[in-house]
Specification:
Length: about 260
């Protein structure tokens, strides 16, 4: 079964007309849009959990793939470390998995490609009001977390990323996102390393980006560098579970 909040999205888009920037920023200044976001958050989370934690987002056919999938937000992270990884085709890059785990990991891109994988053709819905369909292939998050061995007190997975929206302090203001464990182990939650059967482009989040297909676009974190298992979120960033959540977006961005 699939869940759909896209008609609601159109309403938010109308409410926020003239208030949207490329990174969805000005919508956080619209009381009308924020009210709808807040009310929808609890309703959508409750509906998704009632229907089933493993209910799937709709998947499409290859002929449905959008010819031009917009790349928004950060298009190329600042900082020498990331630029060096791009120059070396991510040969020395590692994904760190730590926090409340029994077996912390440091995985190369080849090791991630060797993990249980999934391909899915899904629709990306941005809170700005646009949508695109793309094919994503990547490592399923559930087996990766199983390999690390989550400790019983772990409740969330925080994704720490290479990009920053603060050009003055790019090394200390990194983008982050989070998922609770229900969404982290969902069958369609993957760390994508391919887009449309090609290596994931830098503009779309190379070498890894999150695809959690039952969520809005701003949850699909790009440039993932580290997964941290935690028991709470109040000590990370602004304490609400993500960069945009800290700026009044809903934490549960399900569709």
């Amino acid at each position: 079964m699939t869940l759909d909040r896209r008609n609601w999205l159109k309403g938010v888009g109308a409410a926020a007309t003239g208030l949207v920037l490329s990174a969805c920023d000005r919508i956080t200044q619209s009381p009308q849009a924020l009210g709808v976001l807040s009310a929808a958050e609890h309703l959508t989370q409750g509906a998704q959990r009632l229907i089933g934690a493993r209910a799937l987002a709709r998947e499409y056919r290859p002929e449905d793939i959008s010819p031009d999938f917009k790349a928004n937000g950060t298009l190329r992270p600042m900082g020498e470390a990331y630029q060096a990884h791009v120059a070396s085709s991510f040969a020395d890059w590692r994904l760190v998995v730590d926090g409340l785990v029994e077996r912390p990991l440091s995985l190369s891109l080849d090791q991630i490609r060797a993990l249980p994988a999934r391909s899915q053709i899904t629709r990306h819905d941005c809170v700005e009001g646009w949508s695109s369909i793309g094919k994503w292939t990547g490592a399923r998050l559930a087996p990766l977390l199983q390999q690390a061995g989550l400790r019983p007190e772990a409740r969330y997975i925080v994704l720490h990323c290479a990009d920053s929206y603060d050009s003055r302090h790019p090394e200390t203001s990194r983008y982050y996102e989070s998922l609770d464990l229900v969404d982290a182990v969902h069958p369609q939650t993957i760390l994508a390393y391919e887009m449309n059967d090609q290596t994931l482009p830098v503009a779309h989040g190379a070498p890894l980006r999150l695809r959690a297909e039952r969520h809005l676009g701003y949850k699909q974190a790009k440039y993932v560098m580290r997964l941290e298992a935690v028991d709470r979120l109040d000590h990370i960033g602004g304490g609400r579970g993500g960069y945009w959540e800290d700026r009044n977006y809903e934490r549960y961005a399900g569709i």
